[in-house]
C-alpha cells in the first residue's frame, strides 16, 4: 500500500509529515500510517501539540480515486478524522498547494488550519457524484456557517486562501514557509502566547433559523437535476443542524455509501480520470516542446477569431492574416467581439482587454508570418486551399516554426505532403463553439516530430484546454463518432421518427443538445461540404439518407438562415417544428417506398448508443484513438455526451457489452455495412473484459 508518514518529537511538539507522492492522495496505506502516528502522539506524555504537514508540493489533494466505489480498506478516512478531532492535544494543520475533497476533510478535523499563500481549498465531491465521506458536510457548516458551506459543497469550485480566511475556513495565512510557521505557532501555544479554538468555538456559527433558511434556498435551487448527490448534500447539512453530532456523521456516511457505487458516480469518476489520462502523452515524456511566443493565424472567421482570442488570453503575441482588407476588418472585429463579451461577463477587465489587444496585429500579407514560432491555418476545409497554404509557408515560415492545420475531417498526411517540412506539421482540431469547448484533438501526421506533438499539447495546456491525441483519418475521433450517431438517427427519420422526437429522446438521455438542433446551430452547409468532399468514398450499395441534402438545396442552413431542421424566429432562443420539413421527410419515405412505423424513445437511445460505441470500437481497434476513454473525453467535452454517463464507451460498459453486441447483430440485418459489430466486441466478450480494461494508465 502506498503512503507513509514520518514523525519526530521535539520540545513537546510532534511533527507528522505525510508522504505519498505526487499529490499525497489519502490512500489506504497513508491513512493507516497517519492513524498510527496520531494514536502514538496522543499516548506520548512528551507530546503536547501535534503539527501535521505534507511533504512535496501539496497537502493531500484528495482521495485515491482508484479506491472509491470499491470495498474500503481499513482504516477509513472518517476514522482517521474522528481520531484526530477527538484528540486531547491540539493539532495544527499546515496547508499548501491544493487542499481538496478528502484533503480538506482531513484539515477540518484539525484544531487550527494555517495555509500558505497560493493555497486553494475546495469540496469537489459533487462533481464526482458524491457527498463528503469523512465528516466534511458536518464539520464545514459548523465551522463557517450553513450558507457558505452549501455554496462550497454544491458548487464544487475551489477558493483562494484569502477568501478561505475571510469566511473562517483558514485561521492563519502564512507568508513564510508553512512548516516553519506551523511549528512557531505550536511553540507559541505551549508558551501561552497563542490561544487555540476550543470545541465550543467550533459549534454552530449560524442561528438555527438562518441555517434552515439556507437549506430551504439550496433545495429550491436544485430544480429538477438528474443526479442525486446535490440533494443528498443538502440533506447532510440539514442533519448537521438537526441530529446529534454522532448521528449526523453516521447520516453522512450512509449517504456516501449509497452514492459511491452508483453508475452515475462511477461514470463521473471515469470522466475525471479519463481527462487526466488523455493529457499524459508519451511525446511530452520523450521530448521538450518548442518555445512558442509569437503565433501567426491565417483566417479570421468564427473559428480563427475564437482561436486568436484564446491565444491572446494565454499571453501570446498574435498576427492575424486575411486575404483582403475587408476580410481582415471582419476578422479583427470578431476578435474584438470576443473581448467585449468577456468584459461584459466579468471575465476580463478593460485594462486586460487593452493589453491583449496590444499584442494583436493584422495584415493582408502572409509574409508578415516570417517571425512566428507557430503558424495556424483556420481556413475552410478545402483540401486544395490548405495544401496551397502549406506549400506557400515553406518559403515564408522560419526554420523550426510549427505549422498547424485546424482541419476537422481532412487527411493531415495529404496536407503535410504539400510542405517540404512535414515534420513540423500537426493538426489541432478545435470543437465548436471554439471559445468554450474544452477539448481539442491533437493529430500528428506520419512524419510529425515528437517535439512538435509535445508543443501541441503544451500550447493547449496554456490555453487551458484538454488535448486528446488522434490518429490521422477522416473525421479524427469525434466527428467519426458523431457522424455514426447522425447516420443511425437519419435511418430512424426515414423509418418513422421526427427530428424533434430524436432530439427529445437524446436530451432526455442527458445530451445538452439533440443532434438535429446541434446541426442547425453549426449550419447544415458545413456537413454538406464534408459529404461532397468524400462523396466518392460512399458505398453505392449502402443505405443513404438524403434528407439533409434536400434541406440544403432549399437553403435550410440552420439558425443562420432562420430555417434548418427547425424554424427560427427573431428573438427566440430555440426552434419550433417546421411542417415543411416533416412533409419533406414524408416525401423521402414515399420516394423510397418506406412505410413509417412507431419509433419510441427507448429505441432511439439504444440505437444511438450502439452506433457511437460501435464506431468507437473501430476507432480504438485501428489505433485512431489510443484508448476507449479518449473517445469518451472527446464526446463528453466536444459533443455534450452526458458526463454522468461517462461517454459512449463507459456507457456501453455500464449497459453490458453482450446485450449491445447482440443489438448490433439485429440492426445489421437492416444495413450490414453500417451496423455490423466491430471485431473488438467479440474479443472483449469472450475474454470477460470491458472497454475500460483497455484504458492504460
What do you see in this structure?
The protein is of the alpha/beta class and 697 residues long. Helix content is 48%, strand content 12%. It folds into three domains: 4-261, 2-enoyl-CoA Hydratase, Chain A, domain 1 (Alpha-Beta Complex); 289-469, Rossmann fold, CATH 3.40.50.720; 478-623 and 656-694, N-(1-d-carboxylethyl)-l-norvaline Dehydrogenase, domain 2 (Orthogonal Bundle), CATH 1.10.1040. It has an eight-stranded mixed beta sheet with strand order 12-11-10-13-14-15-16-17, with helices on both faces. Strands 1-2-3-4-6-9 form a six-stranded mixed beta sheet, with helices on both faces. Strand 16, helix 18 (450-462) and strand 17 (466-469) form a beta-alpha-beta unit. Helix 4 crosses helix 5, helix 4 packs across helix 9 and helix 13 (302-313) packs across helix 14 (325-344). The two termini are 18 Å apart. The relative contact order is 0.06.
Write the layout of secondary structure elements.
Layout: E1 4-10, E2 13-19, H1 28-43, E3 49-54, H2 77-85, E4 91-95, E5 98-100, H3 102-108, E6 112-116, E7 120-122, H4 136-144, H5 146-155, E8 159-160, H6 161-166, E9 172-174, H7 178-190, H8 208-222, H9 229-242, H10 245-259, H11 263-279, H12 282-286, E10 294-298, H13 302-313, E11 317-321, H14 325-344, H15 350-357, E12 360-363, E13 374-377, H16 383-393, E14 402-405, H17 412-416, E15 425-430, E16 439-444, H18 450-462, E17 466-469, H19 478-495, H20 499-509, H21 515-522, H22 524-533, H23 547-553, E18 566-567, E19 576-577, H24 579-592, H25 601-621, H26 628-639, H27 648-655, H28 657-667, H29 672-675, H30 679-686
Parallel strand pairs: 2-3, 3-4, 4-6, 5-7, 6-9, 10-11, 10-13, 11-12, 13-14, 14-15, 16-17
Antiparallel strand pairs: 1-2, 7-8, 15-16, 18-19
Helix pairs in contact: 1-2, 3-4, 4-5, 4-9, 5-9, 8-9, 9-10, 11-26, 13-14, 19-25, 20-25, 25-27, 25-28
Amino acid at each position: 500500500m502506498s503512503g507513509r508518514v514520518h514523525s519526530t518529537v521535539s520540545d513537546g511538539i510532534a511533527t507528522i509529515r505525510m508522504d505519498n507522492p505526487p499529490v499525497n492522495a489519502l490512500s489506504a496505506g497513508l491513512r493507516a500510517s497517519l492513524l498510527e502516528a496520531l494514536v502514538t502522539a496522543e499516548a506520548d506524555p512528551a507530546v503536547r501539540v501535534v503539527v501535521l504537514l505534507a511533504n512535496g508540493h501539496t497537502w493531500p489533494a484528495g482521495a485515491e480515486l482508484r479506491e472509491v466505489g470499491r470495498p474500503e480498506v481499513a482504516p477509513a478516512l472518517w476514522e482517521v478524522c474522528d481520531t484526530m478531532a477527538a484528540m486531547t492535544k491540539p493539532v495544527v494543520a499546515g496547508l499548501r498547494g491544493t487542499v481538496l475533497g478528502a484533503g480538506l476533510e482531513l484539515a477540518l478535523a484539525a484544531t487550527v488550519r494555517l495555509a500558505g499563500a497560493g493555497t486553494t481549498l475546495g469540496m469537489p465531491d459533487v462533481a464526482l457524484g458524491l457527498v463528503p465521506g469523512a465528516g466534511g458536510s458536518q464539520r464545514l457548516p459548523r465551522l463557517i456557517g450553513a450558507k457558505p458551506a452549501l455554496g462550497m459543497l454544491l458548487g464544487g469550485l475551489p477558493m483562494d486562501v484569502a477568501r478561505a480566511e475571510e469566511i473562517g475556513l483558514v485561521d492563519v495565512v502564512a507568508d513564510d514557509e508553512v512548516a516553519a510557521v506551523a511549528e512557531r505557532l505550536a511553540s507559541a501555544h505551549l508558551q501561552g502566547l497563542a490561544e487555540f479554538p476550543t470545541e465550543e468555538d467550533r459549534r454552530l456559527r449560524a442561528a438555527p433559523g438562518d441555517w434552515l433558511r439556507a437549506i430551504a434556498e439550496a433545495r429550491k435551487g436544485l430544480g429538477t437535476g438528474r443526479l442525486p448527490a446535490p440533494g443528498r448534500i443538502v440533506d447532510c447539512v440539514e442533519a448537521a443542524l438537526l441530529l446529534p453530532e454522532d448521528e449526523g456523521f453516521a447520516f453522512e456516511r450512509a449517504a456516501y455509501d449509497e452514492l459511491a457505487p452508483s453508475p452515475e458516480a462511477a461514470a463521473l469518476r471515469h470522466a475525471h480520470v479519463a481527462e487526466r489520462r488523455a493529457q499524459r502523452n508519451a511525446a511530452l515524456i520523450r521530448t521538450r516542446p518548442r518555445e512558442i511566443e509569437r503565433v501567426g493565424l491565417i483566417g479570421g472567421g468564427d473559428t480563427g477569431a475564437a482561436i486568436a482570442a484564446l491565444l491572446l488570453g494565454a499571453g501570446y503575441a498574435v498576427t492575424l492574416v486575411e486575404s483582403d482588407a475587408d476580410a481582415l476588418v471582419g476578422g479583427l472585429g470578431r476578435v474584438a467581439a470576443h473581448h467585449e463579451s468577456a468584459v461584459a461577463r466579468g471575465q476580463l477587465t478593460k485594462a486586460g482587454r487593452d493589453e491583449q489587444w496590444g499584442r494583436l496585429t493584422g495584415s493582408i500579407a502572409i509574409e508578415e508570418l516570417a517571425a512566428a514560432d507557430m503558424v495556424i491555418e483556420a481556413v475552410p476545409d478545402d483540401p486544395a486551399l490548405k495544401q496551397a497554404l502549406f506549400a506557400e509557408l515553406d518559403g515564408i515560415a522560419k526554420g523550426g516554426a510549427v505549422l498547424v492545420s485546424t482541419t476537422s475531417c481532412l487527411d493531415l498526411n495529404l496536407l503535410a505532403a504539400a510542405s517540404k517540412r512535414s515534420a513540423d506539421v500537426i493538426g489541432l482540431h478545435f470543437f465548436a463553439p471554439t471559445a468554450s469547448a474544452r477539448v481539442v484533438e491533437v493529430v500528428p501526421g506520419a512524419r510529425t516530430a515528437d517535439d512538435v506533438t509535445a508543443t501541441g499539447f503544451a500550447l493547449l495546456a496554456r490555453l487551458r484546454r484538454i488535448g486528446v491525441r488522434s490518429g490521422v483519418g477522416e473525421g479524427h475521433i469525434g466527428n467519426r463518432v458523431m457522424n455514426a450517431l447522425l447516420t443511425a438517427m437519419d435511418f430512424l427519420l426515414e423509418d418513422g421518427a421526427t427530428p424533434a422526437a430524436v432530439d427529445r429522446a437524446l436530451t432526455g438521455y442527458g445530451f445538452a443538445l439533440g443532434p438535429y438542433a446541434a446541426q442547425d446551430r453549426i449550419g447544415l452547409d458545413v456537413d454538406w461540404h464534408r459529404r461532397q468532399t468524400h462523396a466518392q468514398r460512399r458505398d453505392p450499395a449502402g443505405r443513404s439518407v438524403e434528407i439533409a441534402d434536400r434541406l440544403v438545396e432549399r437553403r435550410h442552413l440552420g439558425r443562420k438562415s432562420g430555417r434548418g431542421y427547425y424554424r427560427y424566429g427573431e428573438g427566440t432562443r430555440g426552434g419550433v417544428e417546421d411542417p415543411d420539413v416533416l412533409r419533406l421527410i414524408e416525401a423521402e419515405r414515399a420516394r423510397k417506398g418506406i412505410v413509417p412505423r412507431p419509433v419510441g424513445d427507448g429505441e432511439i437511445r439504444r440505437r444511438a448508443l450502439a452506433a457511437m460505441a460501435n464506431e468507437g470500437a473501430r476507432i480504438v481497434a485501428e489505433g485512431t484513438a489510443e484508448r476507449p476513454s479518449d473517445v469518451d473525453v472527446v464526446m463528453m467535452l466536444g459533443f455534450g455526451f452526458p458526463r454522468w454517463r461517462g461517454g459512449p464507451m463507459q456507457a456501453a460498459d455500464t449497459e453490458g457489452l453482450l446485450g449491445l453486441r447482440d443489438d448490433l447483430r439485429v440492426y445489421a440485418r437492416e444495413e450490414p455495412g453500417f451496423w455490423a459489430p466491430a471485431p473488438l466486441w467479440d474479443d472483449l466478450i469472450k475474454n470477460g473484459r470491458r472497454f475500460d480494461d483497455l484504458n492504460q494508465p
